[in-house]
């Protein structure tokens, strides 16, 4: 979310962050993302947490069809792109490949956008370009790139209207914790499932999890030791959803 420099160490990982592009394979598609560390910092590179959360959603077979999903701090857009691809079976008009032109013209009205991909204003043009480049034309109406600065103009988003709220490596700046929590509370209903993929780098990251537990029921559902990334699931109160 924040457009600030961030130090992640050296070696191969650092070279990957500074590479102008990154390529992944999810949902039976090759995804090629542009990166721009020099211009946008952390918002314009792919972090391991996003890769791990994408793999988790795909491998666990979590049903995203006909679900309303919002991603916070989307950065390059990898997670939002993968979610849109995984959810493509939610509308019958998207399951075929040889529809006549008249049917294709209905995509924009039949397939209402179900994936909202958000970040701060300065990152939106970059984010939008990656999303458009990696979604086939028939799926683009299902994904909307939208500005969201945590804690601000939340009325632009219907309260409690989302089935899933996703975030990958968005817990690292302590000064944003209150606004992030406020945003989560606004977006979530009793049925909403929050999935946060995090690398716990500092003691302050644990502080946010403690804050989150004061308002949500939180559990760790996955850990990737090779990338040192945890995935936490959170829901309001004691309500629990098995996806």
UniProtKB/TrEMBL annotation:
InterPro entries: Methyltransf_16, SAM-dependent_MTases_sf
Keywords: Cytoplasm, Methyltransferase, S-adenosyl-L-methionine, Transferase
Regions that span the bilayer: none
Subcellular location: Cytoplasm
SUPFAM superfamilies linked: S-adenosyl-L-methionine-dependent methyltransferases (SSF53335)
Reaction(s) this enzyme catalyzes, per UniProt: L-lysyl-[protein] + 3 S-adenosyl-L-methionine = N(6),N(6),N(6)-trimethyl-L-lysyl-[protein] + 3 S-adenosyl-L-homocysteine + 3 H(+)
Stretches of the chain forming a coiled coil according to its record: none
GO molecular function ontology, one term from the record: methyltransferase activity
Main location group: cytoplasm
GO CC list: cytosol; protein-containing complex
GO BP field: methylation
Top-rank taxon, per record: Eukaryota
Pfam family, one: Methyltransf_16
Statement: the UniProt record of this protein carries the keyword Cytoplasm: yes
Family label: Belongs to the methyltransferase superfamily. METTL21 family.
Protein name as it appears in the record: Protein N-lysine methyltransferase METTL21A
Protein species of origin: Donacobius atricapilla
């Amino acid at each position: 979310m924040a457009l600030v420099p961030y130090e992640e160490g050296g070696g191969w990982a650092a070279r990957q962050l500074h590479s102008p592009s990154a390529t992944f394979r999810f949902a039976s598609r090759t995804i090629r993302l542009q990166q721009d560390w020099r211009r946008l910092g952390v918002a314009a590179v792919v972090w391991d947490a996003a890769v791990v959360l994408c793999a988790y959603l795909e491998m666990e077979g979590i049903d995203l069809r006909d679900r309303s999903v919002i991603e916070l701090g989307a950065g390059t857009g990898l997670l939002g792109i993968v979610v849109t691809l995984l959810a493509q079976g939610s509308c019958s008009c998207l399951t075929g490949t040889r529809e006549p032109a008249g049917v294709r013209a209905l995509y924009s009205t039949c397939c209402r956008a179900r994936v909202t991909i958000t970040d701060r204003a300065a990152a939106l043009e970059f984010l939008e370009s990656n999303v458009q480049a990696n979604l086939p034309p028939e799926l683009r109406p299902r994904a909307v790139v939208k500005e969201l600065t945590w804690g601000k103009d939340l009325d632009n988003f219907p309260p409690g209207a989302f089935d899933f709220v996703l975030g990958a490596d968005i817990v690292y700046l302590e000064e944003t914790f209150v606004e992030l929590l406020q945003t989560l509370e606004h977006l979530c209903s009793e049925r909403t499932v929050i999935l946060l993929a995090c690398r716990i780098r500092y003691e302050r990251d644990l502080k946010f999890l403690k804050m989150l537990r004061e308002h949500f029921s939180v559990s760790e559902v996955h850990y990737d030791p090779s990338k040192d990334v945890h995935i936490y699931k959170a829901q309001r109160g004691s309500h629990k959803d098995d996806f």
